[in-house]
Design goal:
By secondary structure, this protein is of the alpha/beta class. The protein folds into three domains: 180 residues, 3-Layer(bba) Sandwich (FAD/NAD(P)-binding domain), CATH 3.50.50; 92 residues, D-Amino Acid Oxidase, subunit A, domain 2 (D-Amino Acid Oxidase, Chain A, domain 2), CATH 3.30.9.10; 108 residues, no CATH class. It is 37% helix and 25% strand. The strands form two sheets. Strands 1, 2, 6, 7, 8, 9, 15 and 16 form an eight-stranded mixed beta sheet that branches. It binds flavin-adenine dinucleotide. The site of flavin-adenine dinucleotide has 42 residues, from helix 1, strand 3, strand 7, strand 10 and strand 14. Flavin-adenine dinucleotide binds next to helix 1, strand 3, strand 7, strand 10 and strand 14.
């Protein structure tokens, strides 16, 4: 049996892709090992910026899909005495309900959903992915013109492909967080329920942060979690959360509704999101924001870019890497360039001590609006750089000043490099070499 498109995984990425493809008249088969009732159910903070929905023309979550409205994020210093508020509207989303809605709409336009089915790996013929092997009580082969790996950290298709394909690049744990969260109902009222809270503290969450995200539309419900750098031996996010956070008085008497953790790839994007007959989106393509770890908005962006490339390749009747390449150019310009730049900022932040973090937040080196701009654009605007450098020099932190200058310079260089992502696969290796050299020289400067 042959399909135009088989999508492996019905999380935020896979269901967004099915939605976009169906809007363009392409009927996909979406396969997930989960059944209909729990598609989209994975450990998450559930926060998504409203701008993602606006920019992609995606429907806002509503009814049961919407668990909270967000007006901003407060970032607290290690002492918790100081905070900056990053304004911006967003939602706390019930992923299961929202994913079901996207899939239902796609199904009403001809998409098929196959739940409870495990994808065992790709079928490769003459240098192309031509289908997948699946298991549901027996092995079956399903052929497709394009297979899309949207299986999250499992990377259930791409990890079996030839290592010479750039789409197979593996995740190094140095570039990942491992995060654990619980959804709890508190006994008391939650103050400022539309403000999400992020706490940076290297003793509590080394290489990451802990968060307290209220669901403003569900009285007393909060999502509380903690992420740490995944390569740190002997540091477990659940243990850290229980030791430092859930032991606080505000959690006394609270009830656990949900608990679980997962790996978060906090790095630059995968070198290429496509190859012959194959595309990759969402966590499987490392599209998570390296600094705040949000991956749902960028999963939708990667799905949008890949959907347009697939529609193009199917219309030409050839699903080679060359014809799917537009997905890379689209994604790298739209979000990958920012990820590349923010990956340097992530590295910079992970090296700061609690003392440095306290200094940056307490002295107001960056305001909430400026932080918002840096996060949105992946760069420091000139006025902001001047202000930060002036303050840092006035406050006599010469080593921090030098590192900041280096960071700002290299973030701009890397972003520019991603904006010049090659327009054809033949030029990829030269571009990758240049990128790696820039990153290496940034790391050397910061040593
Ligand atoms: C604790 C935590 C908190 C987070 N908080 C936020 C947040 O607040 N905001 C935000 O934007 N992001 C957050 N993230 C990141 C975000 O959750 C992910 O980036 C996003 O959900 C990834 O979606 P996905 O569709 O790529 O992958 P997934 O949601 O993992 O979906 C993959 C799907 O593939 C299926 N699958 C896997 N293997 C197979 C197989 N072999 N056969 C068939 N099906 C298969 C799975 O069942 C699953 O349904 C958080 C992550 C964690 C761990």
């Amino acid at each position: 049996m042959g399909y135009d498109v088989v999508v492996v995984g019905a999380g935020f990425a896979g269901s967004s892709l099915a939605y976009f493809l169906s809007m363009a008249g392409v009927k996909a088969l979406v396969i997930d090992v989960r059944g209909w009732d729990d598609v989209g159910d994975r450990p998450c903070g559930d926060a998504i910026g409203k701008h993602h929905f606006d920019e992609l023309g995606m429907p806002y979550p509503k009814g049961e899909e919407l668990e909270g409205l967000v007006r901003g994020i407060a970032v607290y210093s290690p002492s918790e005495e100081f905070r900056v508020i990053v304004g911006g509207e967003g939602f706390e989303v019930n992923s299961v309900k929202y994913v079901q809605r996207l899939l239902s709409e796609a199904i009403s336009r001809g998409c098929e959903f196959l739940g409870g089915t495990h994808v065992r790996g790709p079928i490769v013929k003459d240098g192309y992915v031509v289908g997948v092997r699946v298991w549901s009580g027996g092995v079956k082969e399903l052929n497709a013109k394009v297979v899309v790996d949207a299986s999250g950290n499992a990377r259930s298709v791409v990890r079996f492909l030839p290592k010479s394909w750039p789409i197979t690049e593996e995740l190094d744990f140095v570039d990942a967080n491992v995060a654990y969260r619980e959804v709890r109902v508190l006994e008391g009222e939650v103050e400022e329920p539309e403000i999400l809270r992020i706490y940076v503290n290297n003793d509590v969450a080394p290489g990451g942060y802990w968060w307290f995200f209220p669901y403003s539309l569900m009285r007393g419900y909060v999502n509380v979690g903690l992420g740490v750098r995944a390569d740190l031996k002997g540091v477990h996010p659940r243990e850290q959360l229980y030791k430092y956070v859930l032991s606080r008085p505000e959690f006394r008497g609270s009830k656990v509704v949900k608990a679980g953790g997962a790996l978060v790839p906090t790095r630059k994007p995968l070198t290429s999101l496509v190859w012959n007959g194959i595309a990759v989106i969402g966590d499987a393509a490392y599209v998570v924001n390296p600094v705040h770890g949000g991956g749902k908005g960028s999963s939708m962006i990667s799905a949008k870019c890949v959907s347009e490339a697939i529609v193009n390749a199917l219309s030409i009747g050839d699903t080679s890497a060359t014809n799917l390449w537009g997905a890379n150019v689209c994604y790298m310009r739209r979000y990958g360039c920012k990820q590349g730049a923010l990956d340097l900022l992530r590295y910079f932040l992970q090296k700061l001590s609690n003392d440095d973090l306290e200094f940056v937040i307490s002295k107001g080196l960056v305001s909430g609006d400026e932080l918002n701009e840096i996060a949105r654009r992946g760069r420091f605007e000139v006025g902001v750089i001047d202000k930060i450098l002036k303050l840092a020099s006035l406050l006599t932190r010469p080593s921090l000043l030098l590192k900041l200058r280096t960071l700002v310079k290299y973030m701009d260089l890397i972003k520019e490099h991603y904006m010049n992502y090659p327009s054809r696969p033949e030029d990829l290796s030269v571009w990758v070499n240049e990128l790696n050299n820039m990153i290496k020289s940034y790391h050397n400067m910061l040593k």
